[in-house]
Specification:
CATH topology: TIM Barrel
CATH superfamily: Aldolase class I
CATH class: Alpha Beta
Shape: globular
Number of strands: 14
Bound molecules: flavin mononucleotide
Strand content: 15-25%
Distance between the termini: 42 Å
Radius of gyration: 19 Å
CATH architecture: Alpha-Beta Barrel
Length: 375
């Protein structure tokens, strides 16, 4: 019954809804869908009904990671729900967790257009929002008394602004956001520190060892009450990533996410015509998949005793998610797949994971992690 419903939603979405949505500007559709989701999230009886009909629940998908219980390994990546409007809707469509944000200390109206664009042949999106968000104070006010039904984390980044900041001011700015959450007892279960957004103003970066160390040292002084995960770049060389990880493991960081958007250089899976469509070249979806997978495998091999990994980039199917887990990811996040494949995707992936576990003779998803790690 669930399989039938999941397939029905998938075909209705890809054959009817998606072609209609894709007639409109991506930013407008995104805002409309988030508003629609917000309304659905307010109708409590619908939570139970849709959840019952679509969500896959099975003990073999459950894991405990960084002290948090995850009912399944599929989460919404940062960048879809900038204001924590959807935590009630995510479990209905099958997500096991989700990340809100990225949120910054100061609000930001978004980069000059285009902020979003579709690269349909490449199954990708151009992403140039530059942390469009209403600032940490608004999130704090809105969510002081909220309760979330699944683990929801908050992604925090440096405020984006045209005025120049010094490196020290940037560190202070990030720390301010952490302080706000810590002192207000919000329902977030983990932090995702976003150091890898490619489309911000100024020349602040946290990629070099010293700058990353300064940032993590400042955050560590806060003695965070929740686990800290770091959203990593995928467009750095292996040696640079290794240097960053050597810094990261000397701080109380539990998890690294591989990774963020693909910047500039042509990945093989990007259609050449698509690549000429926009001047800005920050891509999500399939163009990120290959490098994300490569890094998951390499990092698992070297750091699996110390760090858990969340795989993110180009997940459109159960097989895509399973591959990331086999390479070393404990959890998987996605956005672009949801937009191309439909809202049933998290449930569809979990359903498919159960099939793949059974086929390969595993009892729990945790047994699969790293079985294909490369080195
Ligand atoms: C519309 C959009 C907005 C995004 N905004 C953010 C963001 O604010 N913070 C962040 O860490 N990643 C952001 N990302 C990157 C995603 O979280 C993810 O790392 C990337 O898109 C690869 O995953 P995907 O192929 O499943 O989309 C954004 C991606 C998209 C598509």
């Amino acid at each position: 019954m669930k399989e039938f419903l999941i397939k029905s939603v998938k075909y209705s979405y890809t054959l009817i809804l998606r072609p209609v949505f894709f007639l409109f500007d991506s930013e407008t559709i995104h805002t409309t869908l988030v508003n629609f989701g917000t309304q659905i999230g307010k109708i409590t009886p619908l939570h139970f009904l849709i959840k019952k009909l679509i969500r896959i629940e099975d003990v073999s998908l459950e894991q405990n990671i960084a002290g948090i219980k995850f009912d399944n390994p599929i989460g919404l990546a940062a960048g879809f729900d900038y204001e924590a409007k959807l935590p009630n809707v995510l479990p209905m469509i099958g997500f096991g967790f989700g990340t809100v944000g990225t949120i910054t200390n100061k609000p930001y109206e978004g980069n000059p257009p285009p902020m979003l664009g579709r690269l349909i042949k490449s199954k990708s999106l151009l992403v140039n929002k530059g942390f469009k968000n209403s600032g940490i104070a608004k999130i704090v006010n809105q969510h002081k008394n909220s309760k979330f039904p699944i683990p929801i984390g908050i992604s925090i980044g440096k405020s984006n602004c045209r005025e120049q900041m010094t490196q020290q001011e940037a560190v202070n700015d990030v720390v301010e956001s952490f302080k706000e959450i810590e002192k207000n007892n919000l329902p977030f279960k983990y932090y995702e520190l976003n150091i890898s957004c490619p489309n911000l103003y100024g020349n602040i970066e946290f990629y070099s060892s010293q700058k990353l160390r300064e940032l993590l040292a400042a955050i560590t002084t806060l003695r965070l009450s929740r686990p800290l995960f770091i959203k990593m770049p995928i467009d750095k060389r292996n040696t640079e990533v290794n240097e960053m990880l050597n810094v990261i493991i000397s701080f109380p960081v539990q998890d690294v996410i591989f990774g963020n958007l693909w910047k500039d250089k042509n990945p093989k899976s990007l259609d050449q015509e698509d690549d000429k469509k926009y001047k800005k070249r920050f891509y999500s979806g399939k163009p990120t998949e290959e490098r994300s997978n490569e890094l998951i495998g390499l990092v698992y091999k070297k750091y699996c005793d110390r760090l858990t990994i969340i795989g993110c980039g180009g997940v459109f199917s159960p097989e895509d998610a399973y591959k990331k887990i086999r390479l070393g990811a404990s959890l998987v996040e996605l956005i672009t797949g949801l937009i191309y494949q439909g809202p049933q995707l998290p449930a569809e992936i979990n359903f498919g994971l159960l099939r793949l576990l059974k086929k390969d003779g595993f009892k729990n998803i945790s047994e699969v992690i790293g079985t294909d790690a490369i080195g």
